[in-house]
Design brief:
The complex is a heterodimer. Chain A is of the alpha/beta class. Chain A is built from 14 helices and 14 strands. Chain A has helices spanning 2-24, 38-45, 71-84, 100-105, 120-125, 167-179, 191-199, 210-218, 247-265, 273-279, 283-288, 295-298, 305-313, 316-323; strands at 28-30, 48-52, 61-62, 68-69, 90-94, 111-117, 128-129, 135-137, 139-144, 159-162, 184-187, 205-209, 226-228, 236-243. In chain A, the strands form 3 sheets. In chain A, strands 2, 5, 6, 7, 8 and 14 form a 6-stranded mixed beta sheet that branches. In chain A, helix 3 (71-84) packs across helix 9 and helix 3 (71-84) packs antiparallel against helix 13. Chain B is an all-alpha fold. The termini of chain B are far apart. The chains are: A alpha/beta, B mainly alpha.
């Protein structure tokens, strides 16, 4: 669609310009031309515009006071601190699943931190890049504890609630075919109704991404009555998206994530980062925190960028614990590579 | 004196008047109930059965909504609500989230501004509804009110910090979209309706094309066009505000529907009115402004209000492009894990707000109709 979009864009720009200028006259947010790079555009504007979900527990959701909170939101804040050393210079634009890519392509947002799965099609056809994977999700199953099911393989003959039209439904049938399991799907459009159907016993199991299952489970009055099975039947690597072609900005977003991971690896936290930046003698830490070498400048930001970020958001583990642990999510594949089963790994800071 | 007639008292045997039953009462609630609810055995049975169900349901509802309800919980500890599930409502979710539902992500300490904007909106509606204000100055009142609302929402002057549009949300968004939408769509609709009856082929063709094109697609696809396709046509780095794009889509859509309503009024007017106006030598605009439109619009008040009410509710479709109107804000309020599953309470609250506005519109249109159509009443 983007290829189409961009061709269209080039072709129709001239024609559309007159109309657009006419229609847009009163409320045009004129950003500096893209040629100078996203980072410069953000600096000139004075704020980072971050595309987030319209509300997803743990990842991005406004609290009772209307303040955005969540895992993705913390990444937005960290990026704003990296660029401006000021956590307030970030604006959140809620984007629905349908408009998220257009919002990024058209420059309405600078970066998407929006629970988006990295797939080949998206990487190649949208004109967008996915610089890092900051959350490894996957599709799982939730069953009632009373059913005494311990593995998804025991679901042969079960009734399973699933949302239609999503990759979830396709993953489920793909998995069932390869695992030679027969099941009866109960296809219900809305997530909320799916949960209700599962709770009332309309289906034996409920399937969606593990993060979604954990959020649903923690919202029940007796979370312990439900079990999330250990089997994960699909890969859903989630990450930020930036526009293709601006490698400098993509580098910054990528190394922002790596910096947060590295900080956790060296146990630099929000509480000890200021002290560590002056007293820690480990060379890796000194480079990460900008005491030696000039890694920050290479990315186009302040040398002490990681100190500023860690002071505000904490390291990857702290961000995870603050936002996702309350949902009942385990670190699982999102643990550091030093832990068995952990996949979060950062190239060296040097 | 013998010839004198003597008046002898005669007793006329009169039939004794029997006491009659009092007439069956034909007025009062008892009589009404007897005539309408208990007129026969079937009727009585139906009444009793339905009455039983209604009372049972009402008691159940009162138990749920008031007696067993949880009105507030300390610091998001929703266990009390979860325990009361099924027997009592959890109004605590509304207590906790009402400011988010009403004002979205607008900065918390500045909430008085959108609140005041809503009050200005309601004041504007009331003033516009009163006939004594129906004169040219009303346009000035509208301009002043809408400017005030803009200043309040955006800020940046008079010591009020600037608030970017993407942080607006809740009730003000619903009111802005519907008020501006209808305020601009209505004049547009009148022009299009007149144009469609024009004798000039080009104007007529454009108006027909506009109406048929817009009516041929659902509002949701128009909003998609505005939010997904339109930005791709713009030069790089140029962005029209998302709310403005949605607003224009709504104006265009409402315009097409209202135009057809207005056209119905124009066509219902007897031909003699047009001819009489022509005979008086009035120009086209005088004829339209003084003779045709006042009569035509009066006739189409019910369908007009019908469309207005429909559009007031249709503004909630902007949720698909990520604008937090009242309904979306309500849905987002219950995303937080602690409050998941209390949708019914939030939806009831939002439903009441929508109802208040739509019912007021409907009642007002009824009174307007009786008032303006007095000459037709027989």
């Amino acid at each position: 669609m983007t290829f189409f979009g961009q061709t269209l864009k080039a072709g129709l720009r001239a024609a559309a310009f007159a109309v657009a200028a006419l229609a847009a006259a009163p409320a045009v947010a004129q950003a500096p031309a893209q040629a100078t790079g996203t980072l410069d555009a953000i600096r000139a504007r004075g704020s980072l515009i971050c595309g987030v979900t319209t509300g997803l527990a743990g990842f991005a959701q406004p609290d009772s006071q209307g303040v955005w909170r969540g895992f993705d939101v913390d990444y937005c804040r960290a990026l704003a601190v990296a660029i401006f050393n000021d956590v307030s210079k970030v604006r959140y634009v809620p984007t629905t699943a349908q408009v998220r890519f257009t919002a990024l392509q058209s420059g309405e947002v600078d970066v998407l931190f929006r629970n988006t799965t990295w797939t080949l099609t998206r990487d190649t056809s949208l004109g967008l890049d996915i610089p890092a994977i900051n959350f490894y999700d996957g599709q799982g199953f939730m069953v009632k504890r009373s059913a005494n099911v311990t593995s998804a393989r025991q679901l042969d003959g079960a009734t399973i609630c699933v949302q239609p039209g999503t990759t979830t439904e396709q993953n489920l049938s793909d998995w069932a075919r390869s695992a030679r399991i027969r099941f009866t799907p109960v296809v219900i459009e809305r997530l909320e109704d799916n949960v209700a159907a599962y709770l009332t016993g309309r289906c034996d199991a409920f399937t969606t991404d593990v993060s979604g299952l954990a959020a649903t489970r923690s919202a029940q009055s007796q979370p312990n009555d439900h079990v999330i099975l250990p089997d994960v039947i699909s890969k859903e690597p989630l990450g930020p998206l930036v526009r293709h072609g601006d490698q400098r900005f993509a580098d910054l977003v990528r190394w922002l994530h790596f910096g947060l991971i590295t900080a956790e690896e060296y146990e630099i936290t929000a509480a000890n980062v200021v002290q560590a930046s002056t007293t820690d003698t480990r060379p890796d830490v000194q480079r990460l925190l900008g005491r030696t070498s000039e890694l920050g400048q290479m990315l186009g930001v302040d040398n002490r960028w990681m100190v500023n970020i860690l002071r505000v958001t904490g390291n990857y583990g702290e961000i995870f614990t603050r936002n996702l642990t309350p949902l009942g999510l385990q670190r699982g594949p999102n643990a550091l590579w030093t832990t068995p089963g952990g996949l979060q790994y950062a190239p060296p800071f040097r | 004196m013998a010839s004198d007639t003597t008046l002898t008292p005669v007793t006329i045997p009169a039939a004794p008047i029997e006491a009659r039953n009092a007439p069956i009462s034909v007025v009062g609630p008892v009589a009404w109930a007897r005539a309408n609810l208990f007129s026969g055995p079937v009727s009585t049975a139906v009444t009793l059965a339905l009455g039983y169900l209604i009372i049972r349901w009402a008691i159940g509802f009162i138990d749920w909504a008031f007696i067993n309800a949880v009105w507030s919980v300390p610091n998001n500890q929703t266990q009390a609500c979860r325990d009361a599930r099924g027997v009592g409502a959890c109004w605590a979710v509304v207590t906790e989230k009402h400011r988010f539902i009403l004002f979205g992500t607008y900065p918390y300490e500045e909430h008085w501004r959108p609140a005041l904007a809503c009050v200005v909106f309601v004041g504007l509606y009331i003033v516009s509804a009163m006939r004594r204000f129906w004169r040219k100055e009303l346009a000035l009142i509208w301009i002043a009110a809408l400017t005030t609302i803009g200043v309040l929402m955006w800020g940046g002057v008079l010591g009020m910090p600037y608030v970017a549009q993407e942080r607006w949300g809740g009730l003000p968004i619903t009111l802005i979209l519907s008020t501006f939408g209808l305020a601009f769509a209505f004049p547009l609709a009148i022009m299009v309706a007149l144009g469609r009856r024009s004798r000039m082929p080009a104007i007529k063709a454009i108006c027909v094309l506009y109406v048929e094109l817009i009516r041929g697609v659902p509002l949701i696809s128009l909003l998609f066009m505005a939010s997904v396709m339109f930005p791709l046509f713009l030069p790089e780095g140029m962005n029209i505000d998302k709310l403005l794009r949605a607003q224009i889509a709504i104006i265009l859509f409402a315009g097409a529907y209202l135009a057809e309503v207005v056209r119905a009024g124009l066509q219902a007017l007897p031909k003699g009115q047009y001819e009489a106006a022509d005979a008086l030598g009035l120009s086209y605009w005088n004829k339209t402004g003084f003779i045709i439109l006042p009569q035509a619009l009066r006739m189409v008040i019910p369908p007009l209000v019908n469309t207005f009410i429909g559009f007031f509710k249709d503004t909630s479709l902007v949720l698909i492009i990520g604008i937090f109107d009242l309904l979306t804000a309500g849905k987002t309020a219950i995303v937080e894990p602690a409050w998941q599953g209390f949708g019914v309470e939030v939806y009831i609250t939002i439903g009441l707000i929508y109802f208040a506005f739509c019912f007021a519109m409907s009642k007002y249109s009824q009174s307007l109709e009786t008032e303006l159509n007095q000459h037709r009443r027989r």
